[in-house]
Amino acid sequence: MASNQLTIFICSLLLLPLVFPSTAAHDETAPTEPMKKKVDVVVEGMVYCQSCKYSGSWSLTGAKPIPSAKVSVVCKNSNKQVSFYKTYETDAYGYFYAQLDGFKMSNNVLDHPLHGCHVKLVSSPLTNCSLLSNVNYGLYAAPLRFKNKVLRGTHYEAVIYTAGPLAFRPAQCTPESHV
Length: 179
Prior knowledge:
Layout: H1 2-19, E1 38-49, E2 64-65, E3 70-76, E4 82-89, E5 95-99, H2 113-116, E6 117-123, E7 131-132, E8 142-152, E9 156-163, E10 166-169
C-alpha cells in the first residue's frame, strides 16, 4: 500500500508542472526580452483613366480604375538624396498597396514619409489611356496624407499613408460639338 501511495505521489510531482505551468522550474536570472513589434510603412492609392470630358482638369467624374497600372514611390532623405525607390502595380480595381520594405529614416522628423515620400505615375497598360496627367500632382510627385489609418496586430503594425487619386488620360479625345 505504501508503495502505491509513493508511486502516486511521484507521478503527481511529475505531472504538476504540466497541469500548473507556473509551478515549473525556470531560471529567474535569465532576462526575458520582449518581442519587438514590426512596424511597416505603407502607401496606398487609386489610379484611374480620366474621362475625355474632363481632360485637362483635376476632375475624376466618370473616370474608370486602371488595373495593372504602375506607380513609383520615391523617398528622399533630409539631404534630398533618394533613400527609397520602388514601383508598384495596381490590382484589378486600380488600387495599390505599397509596403515600403527597406524604408529607413535616419532623422525621424526630416525623413518622415509625409515630408520625404511621394508617388508618381509610371505607366498604364491601356493603349487608349496612357498619357500622364497632373491630377493630384501625379506628374511631379503626389504628396502623401495621413488619415489615421493604422493596422495593428500583436507583434505587427502598419502605418498607412495615402496618395490622392492619380490618373492617366486618353490620347485621342474627340471634341464635343455644341450644335
